[in-house]
Amino acid sequence: MKKRTILLALAFGVLTANAQTLSSGIDKANLDTSIKPGNDFYRYAAGGWLKSHPLDAEHTDNGAFTDLYEENQVRIQNLILEYASKPQAKGTLGQKLGTLYNLMMDSVRLNREGYNPIKPTLARIAAIRDRHEYQLVTAQLDRMGESTMMFGVGVDADLRNAGMNIVSIGQGGTGLGTRDYYLNDDAQTMKVRNAYKAYLKRLFEMVGNDAATAEKKMQAVLAIETRIAKASYSRVDLRDINKNYHKMSYNQLVSDFPGIDWGNAFLQNGFPKFDEVVVGQPEPIHEVEKILAETALDDLKAYAEIKVISGAAGR
After folding, report:
1. What is the pTM of this model?
2. Domain span holding position 184
3. For residue 253, what is the domain's CATH number?
């Protein structure tokens, strides 16, 4: 008994000594103790940190990941500038990156060329003769990064089997991204939507359309994107895994969504043969089927055109 008591006493002594060297992990400088926890626990727990890490005019958030992102941006920029400022061996990755950067930064050349580089692509769209060819051409352009298809395709981790990747299809096709910009009528949303309409019209004018034609094409694009937005999932719904996971065979995809030329959509985008696919949001994909079947061909072309033009405007 005496031996056991001594061992317990020694163990307690060790724990007590260690406890004196351990910290809680809480930095009191990050607290705002002037606020009662029961009144505003968030401010109490993080008020000090918020004061020492204010937002600036550039960022919408602040924190370790924001700092890490900015540091990586600087590293990447320095790497690219090194490739761009020094001769690189022909055909190397450094030569390609440096050449691309210098091309993008040559504003004199960009202004001189105007929209000439995309004229062949716009002519290709204008020459489309029917809806079948439209889907073929937009799939081919999508492979080139033009985002001319009205939905997204890619490969992601299978949400029900993390050990494998799977082909995924999801909602997309809206220039404003979030569906609410097309559906809400509050003052701020209307301001954004009106600015977007003016932007689209200006882009159409910049590639040679007169004002009336540009207005007509802009309205056609907005009508298509609004239809997609109405059928698209809200931000809240997009968080629900069960709502956004519809796994099926490729044959079932073709059967359930017959209005889309899946063969060319995947073939032209370089996909190998596969057996299964996950459709994230079936409703907007069904709406795309209807749009492709019901919308006038010229309006569909306007949609493809604006994706090419807006993509080039940001390059």
Report:
1. 0.77
2. 121-313
3. 1.10.1380.10
